[in-house]
Predict the structure.
Amino acid sequence: DVKVTQSSRYLVKRTGEKVFLECVQDMDHENMFWYRQDPGLGLRLIYFSYDVKMKEKGDIPEGYSVSREKKERFSLILESASTNQTSMYLCASSSSRGLAGGRGTDTQYFGPGTRLTVL
Amino acid sequence: DAKTTQPNSMESNEEEPVHLPCNHSTISGTDYIHWYRQLPSQGPEYVIHGLTSNVNNRMASLAIAEDRKSSTLILHRATLRDAAVYYCIGTSYGKLTFGQGTILTVHP
C-alpha cells in the first residue's frame, strides 16, 4: 500500500517563526502536492512538484515556499508564519506523468494532515 | 478543469444504496471524472474515476451520462464507515481541484 506520512499531526507556532512541514512518500512517485484545507473553502493547492528540484505554483502560493531535494520528500516552508496560515495542511503524491506534459489520471494518495496553529 | 456541482448534503440508511450526483456541464472531452472521499480527521482517499464508460471497483460504481455532463457515484450498500465528504472532480492533467463536496450521513 502507498504510504504518505507527514512529520506532525499537530503543530503550534508563533507569528513570525519559520515553519517546516515535511512529507515523505514510499512509492517512488514522481509528483507531490501540498494543499491547505479550511472550513468553507475546501482543499486548495499551494504548490506541487513533478520531479526532484522542480516546483510549480498552485492556486495559493503566497506566503509559502517548497523544497524537493529527494524524490520521496517534499517540504512546505512558511518563511514567516502568520495567523492566517492557521489551517490543516495535506500532502499528496501520485505517479501520473500528466504534470510533466502529458495526460494523466493516476490516483493521488494523501497523508493524514498536519493541523497548524499560528498564535 | 471542469467546474462541478454537487448537493451540499445527503442522508442514507445503513445497508441501503446511495446515489451521489454530480453535474459537470463544462467538462471537456479529455477530462476524467474522479471521485474522492474524506473521512473525518483523515486526508482524502481515492474512490473511483472514469472517462466515458461506467466503472466498477470494490468500493463503488460510477455511472457517467452519455453526454458526460453529469455522473453518479453509487455505493451499493452504505455502511456507517461510508459517512464522509464525497468530492467529484473533473481533470485531465494530474491536478485536482476540490469543490465543497457532498456530506454523506449514514443512519444506523
Q: What stands out?
A: The mean pLDDT of chain B is 91. The beta strands of chain B are 9-13, 18-23, 32-38, 45-50, 55-56, 61-64, 70-75, 84-91, 102-107.
